């Protein structure tokens, strides 16, 4: 580390260029201890008055260590403990998959030439959508991995409609998730088929819908510093760093939301919803969005919701990997808020309708 | 956030994951099978931090690249894990979630003699779905933590885990017989007792809860892995 600190020489000689891929104003940001005096928002001459970030980080850590006992005391209430445990658990569970997805996305961005995707995918977007959707079956991971990979695909020139079909199908129809579903529903093997069919249908339908109605200016593909003038190593690690910092921050927002709901919403509400077939489908769809469970584990949770019909539980399994709080935050970070605000409700509605129909036919 | 700060945060995050993965700490949050992935993620994050510093030193000035403020939130899991290290889910979650007992695939033969060590879910499954056939007239030893319901009735509980604590669900056994007069929630007990056909329903989800007739209750330390992973697999 240079003795002048990170911002010094650059910021004083010329105004720091505003990043183009910075989300406009981060309304999603919950207050973080270090949020206030963050220097990246200040341009040019004012930088001298700000603390520099490494120093700030050190101060926050030292303060937290000194106040360890009062903090522990405040957090010892059972609700807070349970909240913290679920929050940390979601982070510890999702970070490895996020890191895997980020490595894969950096490899695509740096080592795979755009011409590869031009050859591998059909020229016509309407045909590229189902091919990309079915290709989702080969990415063994959960939804945290698919967001950065889909972002890399868009940057590599894959038509957004196809990349979005991949984004939606990959977390739901890969072999790990389907195996978990088969294990969780030993008495109902048709559940695996229904999940596969419904998820692929929704993914392709959303791809086609985007192809017909989507507008490029809704989508904010991260216009990042071009990698052409750097070595491959610098480009690769630069991409990994950027994606982890970016998607990781949004993952924290999602994990906090999921922990809040898990700790606060009483389970009695669910039992009340289970009686009516329509209400139960909507209730489990909403629950899938709110709980934000990893798609590799959601089948076991669905299996335990025994008071609900199989169709309602299928809806839970189809909606969860496609749209939940964590994913919404990550999509807004990767593709922009204008995109996420349109894409998420459409996906939700379509997923509910398709799984209700699939459930009626197959289950 | 400039690159030196990003590098520091990435390093802390990676080091925290390595710390959790090399001790038993990670078992409070995720299943044991995720350990290699947690360690790998820690190593990759530290490598990213090192590479960021390395390329930062050789970079020509003028391309300062700030990440949005939301990246600062990544300090929260670091603080939570290092400073607080919240305990595994306990009686609070257990009393707010219905028992997740489901019918087991089968009932493998149990050892013929001596006191029988059983998991909470194993006992509950055999008691409810096998009418306790293999349990009658045997001395049983079961370990779990104490949960009290709203009326103060004691249960012995073990949380089951499929992936991470966000999907953890309890299996409960109600206690009767020689129950210690004062039981505080979250105490780990090794219960010695006998099968009884008596059953009740979970007030939360109407799930079946078998009773266990307690003859002796011995406090034990929290087990190495607080969750029951044999469950459902």
Automatic annotation (TrEMBL), chain B:
Keyword Coiled coil on entry: no
Keywords assigned by UniProt, alphabetized: Membrane, Transmembrane, Transmembrane helix
Domain DUF1980: 128-227
Protein name as catalogued: TIGR03943 family protein
InterPro entries, per the entry: DUF1980, DUF1980_C, UPF0703_membrane_permease
Superkingdom of origin organism: Bacteria
PANTHER family for this protein: UPF0703 PROTEIN YCGQ
Residue intervals passing through the bilayer: 36-55, 70-89
